[in-house]
Structures are given as structure tokens and as C-alpha cells.
Amino acid sequence: MSKFISGEDRNQSTLFPESLEDYVSEDNTVRVIDVFIEELNLAELGFKGLTLKSTGRPKYHPATLLKLYLYGYLNRIQSSRRLETECQRNIELMWLLGKLAPDFKTIADFRKDNGGGIKNVCKTFVEVCRRLNMFEKPVVAIDGSKFKASNNKGNNFTPSKVKFHIDRVEKNIERYLELLDEADKEQANVTKIKATKDRLADFRSQLKKLHEIKEQVEAHPDKQISTTDPDSRLMKTQGFTRVVSYNVQSAVDTKHHLIVAHDVTNVPDRGQLASMTKLAQEALRKKDIRVLADKGYFSQPDIKDTIDLGAEPIMPKTDTSSSEKKGIFNRSLFKYDANKDIYLCPAGNELQNRMQVFEQGKYLDVYFNHIACRDCKIRSQCTNSKKDPRRIRRWVHEVLTEEMLQKLKNQPELMLHRKQTVEHPFGTIKLWMGATHLLTRGLKSVGTEISLHVLAYNFRRMITIMGVNGLSKAIRVALP
């Protein structure tokens, strides 16, 4: 054993350093956490508990609990109970909090009661990054990721799921009624009959609850309910699995991979482009930004709204045409001539602009040619209708999407750049969370939890870029 590194004798008396300061190195992360929180005006950011009453027990200052949470999320400690434990044994936290050790209830209540303030701190740090010229190139990548909610899949109900459970319970009731009849005919013992009746009563009680849930599902706008976390929704994830979750949106800077803006929703990505672009513009204080997104965001009205905001959206188009499944020509084979405002069909005939309709919130020009379609030799490959001609619908602002798709065609590497940018923050945050669900419930509380994750992620990125001492100095300059 003499050749191995040996520890000290546990009974050996030692002289520990005289102060906690000696335990914390100059480049320790807790030092920059302390600088950042101390520079904030917590009253302006909307934190509660800053005004004290003349009587009663003293409170913990919000800055103390905010430091605790930022440290916890930076070190993969998000649970209030685990944070309570760390306060009693972690030397770094003893230094950061001045040996204060709040109980888990106080820690949890702070996060619950100061959601607005925590979100404003997250925005303030993004503003610090902006003042430090971290966003020189106004290009952001937008994406959404599903975060598992604190709601078991078994406690989420849709019309098809409720019907399945009702059918299953009704079959069990029929089976136990038959068993009860058989027991009566065979004059079975009282214990067996009583057990059968008890089981039958349980199933009838279940059936009554399921019918109540069915009424709630049918009355709900989304046609689904979650009993544990009412705001969570059953959504598709990668691999086409369905998970009760929240859809977290983020806009990420393509240069330093900093999260510029984020939001928490319980709806799919489509329709979120303009709202996320607006949040990114407000954070960057720039209108003319380029926004990269995947095909899940493709929505023509949303693209126009984004352009109207002054931004430049870039994303691929989804092919939602069912023509190929029907055995007829795909819409992409019909070529538009902007000069003549006509479409050329695969047979070379001209389809004129005949009328305008309003469908699904959009004004569409309708192109067709009765005569040419009636006498066409390949009509059977173009339409299954025996009377009506093939009609091509064109959005009145479709030139906007065509120009966007042309830009993407000229720069196909943009989609790879988008993926390499926006997937990194989500992967990092989920790694920090571990293989678990969100700790809080409800859109408001989940929004606060995600804000803490985003703040910690951005904080870690800036420490990586500038170092502890460099970031500390920069914060003092950016937050006078």
C-alpha cells in the first residue's frame, strides 16, 4: 500500500482556513453569480418580498434565493429538497449565501411566487449579452422541443382513448354479470357472490367516472384533457411517439448559440414563427433579422406576418398534396407564369385565373381551363373528376414564399446551419435535467422553470466564452 496515494488520518487534528473566502478560488463560478445578482435591481424586475413589515419574523432576501436557484440550475440541482440539502453541506453555497440554509418550502415558494421576476432576470441577461456585442450578426434559428410534463400518459384522455376505456369496462361489467348469474344458479357460497358484487360495483363506479371524463373531453376546445396537469397536451415527438408534454420554443443566435428568446406553449410549431420572431426582435432590438426554421413552421399566413415584422424567414416547404396518393399529377408539376398570370399544366395547356375564394383564412386565386381539360388526352392522370377540370389554387401572396424558397435553393447549407445551432441548447438543457419530467405544472409555472434553465444555459455559455473574471468585469460595465 506504500506506493499508493494515501489519505490523512481521520483522527489527525487540522487547522482549517479561517474564512470561507479561502475555500473559493478566484475563477469559481459562484463569484460571477454573486456579481450578477448583486448588480440587479430586483424591485424593478418585479420580485416580491422586498418590503418588510415592522413586526414578524425576518424573511430571506430575494437575492439570496435567486443566487441559490441560479447555482442549482447551473449544477443540475433543480429540486427544492436537493437545494435544501446542498445549502447544509456545499461549501460553495455556504460562501454564496453566507451560510444561510432555507428550507425546501421557502425555496419552492420563491420559484412559484416570483415567476415574472425570474423571467425578467433571464431577459436582463440577454440584454447584457447584447450590450457586450454578442449578437453582431442578426441571424437566429427557431425550433421547438417537447418537454415531458408532470402528467402520466394514463391521466391524459382523448375521445378515442375514452371510448376504448368505456368499451373495456362495459365488457367487464357484462362478464361479471354473467359470473353473478352463474353463481346464483350454482348456489355458490356467500363469500364468492359478495366478491363478484364488489368487483361489479367497482367497474360501475369506473364507468360513471369515464362518462364524466367523456363529457369533459367533448366540451374541451382541444378535445383532450390532462387530469394531473391540465395545461399539458398529448403531442407527437421524434419517432412519431406521443408524449404528454409542453412545446418549448427557442430562438438561438447562430454565432454563439445563446438563447435570444424563448416561450412555452402547448400547441405544435406551426403558427409560432411570427410570435417567436417578434420576441427575438425585441431582445435584439433589431427588426431586420434573418430567421431560420424547419418545415414544421411552414405556414403561408405566418410567413407573411413575419415578413411584415421586417424579418427575413427562411425555411423549406412541406408537400401536403395528396395528388400522388390519388394517382394524379402532383401540384408541383404545374408551372406558374408570373408575366401572364397563368399555370402551364403537364400537357402544356394554359390554366387561367378564373376566380378568387377565401379558404382557411387565406384568399386564393383559382386557375383552370374547362375546354383544354375536357379534350385533354391525359386527363385521367390529372383529375379523377369526370365533369370538373383540374383546379390549381394559388395564395394571393404566394410570391413571398417563392422568393423565400429561391433563397433557400441558393443557400441549401442554411438548414444544416439551423440544425447545428438550435439543437445544441435543447440537448444541453435536457442533459442537465436528466431522464425526467418537468418539476412544475401549469403553463405559468413551467414557463418559470424553463426560464431558469435558459438563464443557466446562457450563463454557462458566457462563462465558456469570456471566463469567470472576464464576465464579472463585463457585467459590472453592462449593468451600471
From TrEMBL:
Coiled-coil spans are 166-220
Q: Which Pfam families match?
A: DDE_Tnp_1_6, DUF772
Q: Give UniProt keywords alphabetically.
A: Coiled coil
Protein name as it appears in the record: IS1182 family transposase ISPcc4
Is Coiled coil included in the keywords of this UniProt record? yes
| UniProt xrefs under NCBIfam families | transpos_IS1182 (NF033551)
Where does the source fall among the domains of life?
Bacteria
> What residue stretches are annotated with the Transposase DDE domain?
344-463
Protein species of origin: Pseudoalteromonas haloplanktis (Alteromonas haloplanktis)
Q: Which residues form the Transposase InsH N-terminal domain?
A: 19-112
**Is Protein biosynthesis one of the keywords?**
no
